[in-house]
Amino acid sequence: MTTRAGFVALIGEPNAGKSTLTNRMVGAKVSIVTHKVQTTRARIRGVAIEGDAQIVFVDTPGLFKPRRRLDRAMVAAAWGGAADADVIVLMVEAHRGVTDGVQRILEGLEDIGKGRTVALAINKIDRVKAEALLALSKDLNERYPFAKTFMISAEKGYGIDDLREWLAGELPEGPWLYPEDQIADLPMRMIAAEITREKLTLRLHQELPYQLTVETENWEERKDGSARIDQVIYVARDGHKGIVLGHRGETIKAISTAAREEMEEFLGRKVHLFLQVKVRTGWLDEAARYSEMGLDFKDGN
Questions:
Q1: More confident residue, 290 or 88
Q2: Mean pLDDT across the stretch 182-207?
Q3: How does the record say this protein sits in the membrane (predicted)?
């Protein structure tokens, strides 16, 4: 039997649906999905099986105009993920069309895409009429020579099977890169931190979610099969601590409950989750915090 395996990088603007597509392809939640932009910080790899092929999805941070060190490190990680991949898929939101951000990505592909198979996936097709979709596809294909164009809805599952089947056929022949039952190459400690960060992002508003990070400090396997997980939420300012805790600790309790329930579902066993909130004014400039997120501190320069 001939097996295939390789990396597929999903690139696009923030909120284009990359994390949703990764989760849909893999069939499990390996990348956090929220309505807020720039939630994917590290390059999360999800592993999908299609016939004899193993597709490793690199879900990169959204490509946007970076303003601060963390932004620059995220954008560098996104292009780095594309440069390391066998196949690149550019995701564009159907209802937003060719924005300035999409145009910048197309220009970046002139260099990164050389010698690679690059496909176009127009996402959220349920939001626009067929004529607009065809016009957008024609416009994008005139701007860049895509190997193939797919019309999909990552959220609803339209067109996903065709895309996965095509990707499987484009990967190089070779042995599988991960064990058959493995769905992500992130350590469980980082997945647990991402789950908590998603709940914080959903619950809190404005800029605060980008001024905080979550680290799993301790993971203890218990004799009864359960796990005790201790996490620290680092915030940049004193005032942020009160926002995360909420009135009489109600906000942090709700976040803890939601995160614990999702961890239990993901792990298939009982979890005892303990959260602490600490103020760390300069965490956005600490190399250790970046490596914890799978980013390169130097890329933020």
A1: 88
A2: 75
A3: Peripheral membrane protein
